[in-house]
Design goal:
Blueprint lengths: L25 H30 L5 H11 L8 H18 L11 E5 L6 E4 L3 E5 H4 L5 H16 L2 H19 L2 H42 L3 H9 L18 H14 L24
Parallel strand pairs: 1-3
Antiparallel strand pairs: 2-3
Helix pairs in contact: 1-6, 1-7, 3-5, 5-7, 5-8, 6-7, 7-9, 8-9
Length: 289
């Protein structure tokens, strides 16, 4: 008869000293998690922005007009000189728009802004603002018509709606997926990358608007002298040389070179033409502030 084996010995062994040690530092894992989260958020924001840029121009233009009527102060001027300026600007804009094949139901409304900034812009609903600072620098109807044609082109191609749609989409995504403080931080981190991704789109918009302005100038006057004068009038960008790629507008010299090449290709490069003075009403601006 064999002897049964002795029972196993029960021991209270101490756990190994490296039980809680990890091969990877926890802060490194946290950093990877944050990086992955920011990357996913960036993809979501950019996707929402690009989708909105595609969708916004397909919405009926009447919705833009309704938004403009709610948001913008469009009280008619009471001063006789201001009314005359408004009428002169609108009359020229109507002549330009008639040569630009706007979609049915699309109209533009132009007003002047008593500001010394050398600028003009198109906003929602076909509204265009021309600053007095720019009007003072223009001395021909052809140059002003080219400026208006450029801004009307932004309205025609719904660039304003696309830009607004992108901004609203980004803000909506950040407000939904992140708390207020985190959303602000994420927006700051992602803003640079998103802007770089969208600058090419904006520069393409500007080149398209320049091409439309050239076509309208040729249709109205038979030459591009006013557009050339406009580009020579615009102030040069303050950014240092070599950084034009980072600006939404192409460099003024680049735009002028494109214009001259396109006009020459159509046999319409006018080097010495008599330009039409501005309407008298547009020369009666209030003193600079």
């Amino acid at each position: 008869m064999s002897t049964p084996p002795p029972p196993p010995r029960l021991e209270n062994r101490l756990p190994p000293e490296n039980l809680l040690e990890r091969d990877e530092h926890p802060l490194r894992e946290l950093a990877w998690l944050l990086a992955a989260s920011l990357f996913a958020l960036a993809v979501l924001v950019l996707a929402a922005g690009f989708a909105s840029r595609w969708l916004a121009p397909h919405l009926p233009f009447k919705h833009e007009v309704a938004l403009a009527e709610r948001l913008l102060d469009e009280t008619p001027p009471t001063d006789p000189q201001a009314r005359a300026r408004h009428a002169a600007l609108q009359a020229l804009a109507d002549r330009v728009a008639a040569r630009m094949a706007l979609p049915a139901g699309m109209q533009v409304r132009v007003t002047d802004e008593p500001s010394d900034f050398v600028n003009a812009y198109a906003t929602v609903g076909g509204r265009i603002r021309v600053f007095h600072g720019l009007l003072r620098k223009l001395d021909s109807e052809e140059a002003l018509a080219a400026l208006l044609a450029h801004e009307i082109a932004h309205v025609k191609h719904r660039h304003v709606a696309a830009g607004m749609g992108h901004g609203l989409a980004v803000a909506l995504v950040l407000s939904v997926v992140a708390p207020e403080g985190a959303a602000q931080a994420a927006q700051g981190l992602l803003g640079g990358a998103a802007q770089l991704a969208l600058l090419g789109y904006s520069r393409d918009n500007e080149r398209l608007a320049d091409d439309e302005a050239l076509a309208a100038s040729l249709a109205l006057y038979g030459h591009a002298g006013g557009l050339a004068q406009l580009f020579k009038t615009l102030p040069q960008a303050d950014a240092p040389a070599g950084t034009a790629w980072l600006r939404s507008h192409p460099d003024t010299a680049e735009r002028l070179a494109r214009l001259q090449a396109a006009a020459a290709a159509q046999g319409a490069l006018a080097t010495a033409v008599a330009l039409t003075p501005l309407p008298p009403a547009l020369g009666q601006l209030p003193p600079p502030r």
